[in-house]
Design goal:
The complex is a heterodimer. By secondary structure, chain A is of the alpha+beta class. Helix content of chain A is 31%, strand content 29%. Chain B has one domain. Residues 1-9 of chain B have low confidence and may be disordered. The chains are: A alpha+beta, B alpha+beta.
Chain lengths: 89, 131
């Protein structure tokens, strides 16, 4: 069963500053600033390759990273959607 | 790098471990815009009517200060008005709690005549700023 597909704004919509394990993001379209921890930056980066549902996103992430606990991807996407950093495609 | 096989140049030799985290663990904190906090402060600032410089004086309908007991003038308010109350008073004419509605316009005009240096001016000026 395919879930919702998500998309992120292009990289030029975000100003990103790494801060010792955290990342501060200024999202220009909304004017909001967010402090995010891993894996949020990695998810945003993976979504810039194009819209993806959770399964596709996990495939993209797995090509670059090792991880367990696939089910948490839904919670991470929910947070990013609530913050306005990703939206449904 | 010439002479080497770099066909796998973009594949890291040691893959990074990514922690997706527990479902309940938040990884995003949104910083409220400074303007939102400023707006909250503005709505809680206070304007004395009249200010301490004019203690005891009455307020004429046009907002000017007049001698105590002047016919048609409003007495000083017993408490300062909060920014939120002033905003409602100036925009919609709604009378703050405990204020005589027949005097509300005089108080509103007094506030409109506030100038830099007078008590409450900063609060009034802040209310005028676009948000």
């Amino acid at each position: 069963m395919a879930g919702p597909r998500y998309i992120a704004d292009p990289a030029n919509a975000l100003t990103s500053v790494a801060l010792d394990g955290l990342t501060v993001l200024f999202h220009a379209p909304s004017g909001m600033t967010h402090i995010v921890a891993s894996p949020a930056p990695e998810i945003l980066d993976a979504l810039r390759a194009g819209p993806a549902d959770a399964a596709e996103l996990l495939r993209r992430l797995r090509a670059r990273f090792e991880f367990d606990g696939d089910e948490a991807i839904h919670a991470r996407l929910g947070e990013l959607e609530a913050a306005g950093l990703v939206r449904r495609a | 790098m010439s002479g080497t096989d770099d066909s796998n140049a973009f594949v890291p030799s040691r893959r990074t471990v990514l922690v997706l985290g527990a479902a309940a663990a938040s990884t995003v904190v949104t910083v409220r815009p400074a303007l939102a906090q400023t707006a909250g402060s503005v709505l809680n600032c206070e304007i004395p009517v009249p200010g301490p410089h004019a203690g005891g004086q009455y307020i004429a309908p046009d907002g000017s200060l007049v001698a105590p007991g002047t016919p048609g003038a409003a007495p000083p308010l017993t408490r300062p008005l909060r920014g939120e109350e002033v905003k409602q008073l100036l925009r919609s004419g709604s009378t703050p709690a405990g204020v005589d509605p027949s005097s509300a316009q005089a108080y509103a005009n007094y506030i409109r005549r506030l100038q830099a240096g007078m008590s409450g001016f900063t609060c009034y000026a802040s209310l005028q700023m676009p948000r």
